[in-house]
From TrEMBL, chains A, B, C, D:
Catalyzes the reversible transfer of a formyl group from formylmethanofuran (formyl-MFR) to tetrahydromethanopterin (H(4)MPT) to produce 5-formyl tetrahydromethanopterin (5-formyl-H(4)MPT) and methanofuran (MFR). It is an enzyme of class 2 (transferase). One of its GO terms (molecular function) is formylmethanofuran-tetrahydromethanopterin N-formyltransferase activity. InterPro entries: ForMFR_H4MPT_ForTrfase, ForMFR_H4MPT_ForTrfase_C, ForMFR_H4MPT_ForTrfase_fd-like, ForMFR_H4MPT_ForTrfase_N. It is found in: Cytoplasm. It holds the Pfam family FTR. This is Formylmethanofuran--tetrahydromethanopterin formyltransferase.
Length: 296, 296, 296, 296
């Protein structure tokens, strides 16, 4: 299959279930909502080495938020057990401390809920208020009063949506991945948790050549610079650089939509020559997100 | 003491020792260095709830980096014991995965050093290279080759530099704090670890009114909205909002310089009326950063 | 009338007809489309002193552009006679010269059209191509090939939509205006042509106190700092600062929608106390955009 | 000559005298200074089609500005005759109207001065004030009081500093040019007036193939896509895309420094293969900025 002259590999991304919470952060202006969202979703690229995976879902206008202020929606992803604590800590450390922010439950209809009890921070100076039909707490703080919800929904979403942008040189691959990342930012219900939405280094579980235990090492099959030294390389001929887009979403449909939007954007970038995706041959994850189906 | 018509309280910020590493992140353009730096310093506002405190020290031009590329310098702060692991994880998860980045030791003359052994990620495909006189490892990854140092220095720096920007209303306090944060960004050797460099909510250890254990609750003495209910309030009359700037630095001189730059910027903002600082009456921290001395 | 506790003056903005073209600028990434759009809409705040009025309407995703690349939509406004030349010059100087850009007619259904003949720049090396159903020219340039339309539509739109954000101090007024400007950016069919979308200084035609001719001087009736010296001041008591939002749109409905969105955003900002609008008592402009009706 | 493996052509950029004013714009925060500076330097890429050439020289910290606020320095370039009017109009339309701004003369030691008489806008409500040793006017406006200088210096500077970034494909050329543009932003005394600092299309005077008069057409000698059709092409073999950096400066030394900084940055970008510069064989401009000398 070709799209805009770029080969689309006949393969699939392999997705896994992950629990997802969506937190709506509002502030006096977009800029201040974004500052809090950026801090709250930092150090959260991969569940392997970070406490969770998190990213920015998108901007919200005043029409779309409970308090009528501009907002940024973030998604935090982890195991069902770890998720409540991660949401709690990231709100407490990164949003409650940020200027002019409020937080709201971005999954009000989720059946699974948890309560982060942030109002104890008020030391009994806090009070209940209703904002846009939401039960909130008002907590006196230095800037004035913090207002926010503390019950959040969580849903069983999909992690590990992905595709590779391969190109004739590194800068073409990079801007292809950038265009893909920008496009995915506009797809509701999805995030890319890596820096700037782009992954520069892929890993395999364990090590082939070191004798002592290492949790993860470079995935040499996808390394263009050692293509000639790796007999089972998966780097197509002529490809000099690869970036991966990794997508988590609230459901399979959202992840597929994001993959399609990202791939369509990447193939518009001159020098991008090949699109593929990563999987474990279907042995591990229940979701097979097939590139040709997604783009059909 | 008055500065630009704003009262400067006769008090001091109380600083504590903290161990600090500086990591120089370079990339193909400033923008990509900043993306990695932002991810690597996220979820790192306060050592109380985050694994470390981290922030962006500033931009570096190609003249100032070992590989001649544009860069961003970040500082990561923690206990001596925890710091190496935090530097390791944040580089491994947030910089090695980011597009086009390299990392270099930003404290090459520090006596204390640690080694993060990131080259094992190369699974023996890695090799040694020298970049700008630095011993680096070149590791094949998807985008091409990652290049970076893995021995980093750490110094005993100063945490807890701080001052309060108080104003006649919230928006004046906010822009006063913003001007301060911008000014501090230009002072070498310092960071502000909170979102956008500004702290909206201060805390005290434990709780006064709840009977069960809570690690920290709102510092009601600095809450303008309940000023009338708190007999020992520290909110000056007429002050309606307070933001705090919290500064970590490589040494006391740098923290003082940042405090001075921040305060001078804040008092230029119309509506800012009072500057103070937080301390534990000298009982805990060895550094007393006196506002009047700093500004003299 | 009150909105969120803020008084809404019982008055109207007075609008005038203006001719409007919409130009869709696409590029390899959003960032590069925005760089071109920013240059192309610069020095275009007010038709009084600038060659035209221009601004950014908003971002477009790949789904919304003829070539499937990310884009920014801009609007250029002038008299019917001057508009074609302004569109021509701003595309030729600021978009054709910008990296990776294409331009498309953003008003394909407008009855009035004009042709900017940019293909002569190709010196007969140019050729016709069709992109997304649009008749375009491909012109060889240094970066590769520039591709774009050269026939543009124009419609008789509405200029002079406006409202004033008044507050208890300057920083509250500023962030109120900022929130309004951010909100208006999301309303299709409208622009704010002033720097950052905010107007800090209002003018009246001519001069009262100087004897020689001056085209425009400060509108002292709206100057809080000299409120006591101006008997017919229109500054409400307690107001210390005023910013104006000035809106142009493709039609009256769009301007009204933008005014409503902006006012709703501004009144959420603490310290904003009064919203009004500017008019010539209905003597000049055919459109009376009444605040109470717009917000009903 | 080679630099980082990239060929540096043995040629020179040909510079011309141009008159330059430097305007320092300060504001409550960096962000607001930048908004005004962006508007004031828009639609000013090339003196051929724009009223002037203008660009952002760089940020200034509070230490570097007359009023101690953060600032942005811009440079406006035109003929000696046209320059005062351009400075006047861009300040009046784009800075006086922008939130919280002041302007100061950035060339206080220049022998040539001009007076833009902006204080008449105050309609006799204005008054003289001294700020940081500068004679300023305070003019009541909507936001409060505008304060700024109105006498500006101008110097005979150098226009037309330039170099070409050539690469094996378009995205490599683009990011090479971007790295160069970022580096030049840090060189005092210089600007790049084109969108984002990068020029995508070069022109020659007049036309070769059209019979009627056209002021400028594409410079086919530097068009990679028609390399095979142009016998006297200057596109080296293997080069698929070219971007130009065009630099104006306060003097020849500054322009040379910017060219060196830009070239050194560009050659670090993978895929960039060749650096050259544009000239008229020394027939027109008095300055010959030789690449090999600049980089020696």
């Amino acid at each position: 299959m070709e799209l805009n002259g770029v080969t689309i590999d006949n393969t699939f991304a392999e997705g896994f279930p992950i629990w997802v919470s969506r937190v709506i952060i509002t502030a006096v202006t977009r800029e201040y909502a974004m500052k809090a969202a950026t801090e709250a979703t930092g150090f959260a690229t991969s569940a392997i080495g970070c406490p969770c995976e998190a990213g920015i879902e998108g901007y919200l206008s005043g029409d779309e938020t409970p308090d009528g202020r501009p907002g940024v929606s973030i998604m935090i992803c982890a195991s069902k057990k770890k998720l409540p604590e991660q949401v709690m800590e990231r709100i407490a450390e990164c949003v409650l401390t940020a200027a002019t922010t409020s937080v709201f439950n971005g999954l009000p209809e989720a059946e699974e809920k948890f309560d982060i009890k942030i109002h104890f921070f008020g030391d009994k100076f806090e009070s209940k208020v209703e904002i846009g039909g939401r039960a909130c707490w008002k907590i006196p703080i230095m800037e004035g009063d913090y207002v926010g919800e503390e019950v959040f929904g969580m849903v069983k979403g999909v992690a590990g949506g992905n595709f590779f942008v391969m190109a004739e040189n590194q800068m073409a691959a990079l801007l292809g991945a950038q265009a893909a990342s920008d496009a995915i930012l506009e797809v509701k219900g999805t995030i890319t948790s890596f820096p700037g939405g782009i992954v520069a280094s892929g890993s395999k579980v364990g090590s082939k050549n070191y004798k002592f235990p290492i949790p993860a090492t470079t995935n040499e099959q996808y390394c263009p610079s050692i293509r000639d030294k790796v007999p089972d390389t998966k780097v197509p001929e002529g490809v000099k650089s690869i970036y991966e887009l990794v997508i988590n979403g609230v459901d399979e449909a959202a992840v597929k939509k994001a993959m399609a939007a990202g791939i369509k954007a990447a193939v518009k970038v001159p020098g991008v020559t090949f699109i593929s995706a990563g999987n474990y041959e279907g042995k591990l994850g229940p979701f097979q997100l097939k590139l040709h189906e997604i783009l059909a």
